[in-house]
Amino acid sequence: MKKLYFLLPFVLLSCKSAISTVNEKSKSGSKPVEVVYKVDETEVSEFLKFLSSDELEGRETGTKGIEKAAVFLEDFLNKNNIKPYFKTYRDTLTNFKSPAYNIVGVLEGTDPVLKKEFVVLSAHYDHIGVEKNKNDDRINNGANDDASGVTAVAQMAKYFSKTQSNKRSILFVFFAGEEKGLLGSKSLVQKLKKKDFNLYAQLNIEMIGVPMKRDYLAYITGFDKSNMAEKINQYTGKNTIGFLPKEAEYQLFYRSDNYSFYEAFKKPCQSISTFDFENFEFYHHVSDEFKLMDIPHMTSFIQEFLPAVTQIASSPTEEITMK
């Protein structure tokens, strides 16, 4: 999560194997989407544990630690048959002084027409690195911010690879440079614009490692900017997305990688999170560690979002629109 002066930011998702089916009636939006695929809690735990381990030294952009994370993510995408979007999985940042990379994979849609449209599922895999002080614990592991979001997107990638339930093409993006000022997303959107990238919607996941004590699972940034919250709830058949007043107060819509995409494409591009300024006190702190993450919550979070991302990637018409 990018630090902006004294303000805090953002959002969500994760999966296993089986098969996914979409209720035929859901195509009209009349009923929730049915998914039988089950997210594997052990896989969620193991993925998050490595990504937030001391070995990666806080994943600061341009360091050896984030390089290890990049290799880990490349191997995961390759293992799950997600192809590189560019010549390789690595998308070099054009706006950072030393070599740094977004990791970008693509899964082509199954529909000959709809596959020309893209859904972007994303999270940032960088964090803020190692403290300069002499304390015993100097590593900002960034388990919640945003290894949790990366875990969710990775498990979604596995789900779609196993089930082939996406009629639209999906870009899976792990951003570097978010903590440096949204640099990874800013760099990538310029390249995509030159390719006449046909974006349908972006779902960005930020800080989903701990649950909220509210009557909804997560909140969305820029709640009133599109009908995405309404459609997600329709697709899941649950009170999945709610409105968080703090999100509007702090204008979180503008403070994560969704904004770079919105600014470039003017399409529904929003972040989802369960960090509500009350449930986690270690934002940008060395105590943001794996042991504090609620793995059952993360697993159920990802599971609950699978119907939503399935329908976003497969609705026959553009159901998600700007207001």
What does this structure look like?
With 323 residues, the protein is of the alpha/beta class. The protein has one domain: Zn peptidases (Aminopeptidase, 3-Layer(aba) Sandwich), CATH 3.40.630.10. The chain has helices at 41-51, 64-79, 143-163, 183-194, 228-236, 245-250, 258-265, 295-312; strands spanning 83-84, 90-92, 101-107, 118-124, 169-175, 199-205, 218-220, 241-242, 269-273.
List key phrases describing it.
323 residues, alpha/beta, Aminopeptidase, 8 helices, 31% helix
For the record, the CATH architecture stands as: 3-Layer(aba) Sandwich
Beta-strand content: 5-15%
Radius of gyration over C-alpha positions, nearest whole angstrom: 18 Å
Helix content: 25-40%
How many helical stretches?
Answer: 8
Overall pLDDT confidence:
92
**Molecular shape:** globular
What's the CATH C level?
Alpha Beta
Which helices and strands occur, and which strands form pairs?
Elements: H1 41-51, H2 64-79, E1 83-84, E2 90-92, E3 101-107, E4 118-124, H3 143-163, E5 169-175, H4 183-194, E6 199-205, E7 218-220, H5 228-236, E8 241-242, H6 245-250, H7 258-265, E9 269-273, H8 295-312
Parallel strand pairs: 4-5, 4-6, 6-9, 7-8
Antiparallel strand pairs: 1-3, 2-3, 3-5, 7-9
Helix pairs in contact: 1-3, 3-8, 4-7, 5-8
